[in-house]
Structure to design on (327 residues):
């Protein structure tokens, strides 16, 4: 059980691979954070995360809640989020909180990667990659399994390298065959792993970072930031220091919580003039399910998604004309 702090802000970031939850105090400090696998079941992941958070800090008073990530609408409907924002905004806000003068944010997760360009605290450009596995953490996961090395040890191996192997990184399939070739040539595992890190960095910079003005301070966040070999490879390629925040793996959730705090301050939640939409930790025990159907009322043929709480339709989205989402 963590120390109970009244006046907390909850941030939830649900992606295709991982689900993150954080509680911040009024000063923006992380009271408690949770990182768990989504495992293709975002509803179950959010409820499991809420149960864990309730056990750790169930006496905390949540003033406001924010949701982000690819499942942000679903999450927002479930928990009663006061703020629902895209992950670009949340990641940028999280990075600015740690490094106020940050000008480049690099976020690499298991299945996608992002770059956000900021100038004077404002996001002016961004890019995303969700197509090629060679630009994401899954690229390293697959090769770690092939080499029989826990992914947690990848960074240490890379830092011991004296002659990184040059490995093709534009495609996961080509990278794997090239890695096998380098093994046959007698390269050490340390040099191959360092080469894999450098290959992912080249892929990221050539695709996500293409035509972007990458200026320091540079912040690296997302699960891949745990790999010291990746940090070193980025610093080598960019020629500048790369900052990894203390809570790098949950920065999207941190940003969502900060956005919730800003909402609370601007909308009277702190004075009691208005109440938060947050439903409380009890949502961990409610019966939720999702459903969808194809609307055939026009040629758009939208896939309309609904989330149910028991027999009640809690929220609807996905229709371009808002016929269902506003009903």
């Amino acid at each position: 059980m963590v120390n109970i702090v009244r006046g907390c802000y909850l941030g939830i970031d649900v992606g295709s691979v991982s689900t993150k939850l954080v509680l911040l105090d009024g000063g923006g400090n992380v009271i408690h954070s949770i990182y768990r696998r989504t495992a293709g079941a975002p509803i179950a992941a959010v409820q499991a995360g809420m149960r864990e958070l309730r056990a750790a800090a169930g006496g905390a008073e949540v003033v406001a809640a924010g949701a982000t990530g690819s499942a942000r609408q679903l999450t927002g409907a479930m928990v009663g989020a006061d703020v629902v924002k895209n992950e670009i905004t949340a990641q940028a806000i999280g990075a600015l909180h740690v490094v106020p003068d940050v000008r480049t944010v690099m976020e690499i997760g298991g299945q996608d990667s992002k770059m956000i360009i900021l100038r004077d605290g404002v996001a002016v450009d961004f890019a995303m990659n969700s197509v090629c596995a060679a630009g994401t953490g899954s690229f390293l996961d697959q090769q770690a399994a092939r080499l029989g090395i826990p992914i947690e040890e990848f960074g240490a191996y890379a830092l011991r390298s004296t002659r990184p192997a040059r490995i093709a990184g534009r495609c996961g399939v080509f990278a794997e065959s090239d890695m096998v070739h380098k093994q046959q040539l007698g390269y050490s595992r340390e040099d191959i792993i360092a080469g894999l890190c450098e290959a992912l960095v080249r892929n990221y910079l050539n695709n996500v970072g293409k035509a972007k003005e990458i200026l320091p301070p540079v912040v690296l966040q997302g699960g891949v930031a745990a790999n010291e070999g990746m940090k070193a490879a980025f610093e080598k390629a960019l020629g500048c220091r790369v900052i990894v925040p203390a809570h790098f793996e949950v920065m999207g959730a941190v940003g969502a919580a900060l956005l919730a705090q800003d909402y609370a301050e601007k909308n009277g939640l702190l004075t009691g003039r208005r109440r938060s939409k947050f439903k409380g930790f009890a949502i961990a025990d409610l019966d939720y399910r999702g459903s969808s159907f194809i609307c055939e009322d026009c040629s758009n043929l939208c896939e309309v998604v609904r989330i149910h709480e028991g027999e009640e339709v809690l929220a609807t989205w996905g229709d371009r004309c808002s016929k269902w989402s506003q009903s």
User: Anything to note?
Assistant: The domain at 8-92+251-285 is CATH 3.30.420.40 (Nucleotidyltransferase; domain 5). The chain has three domains: 8-92+251-285, 100-244, 288-317.
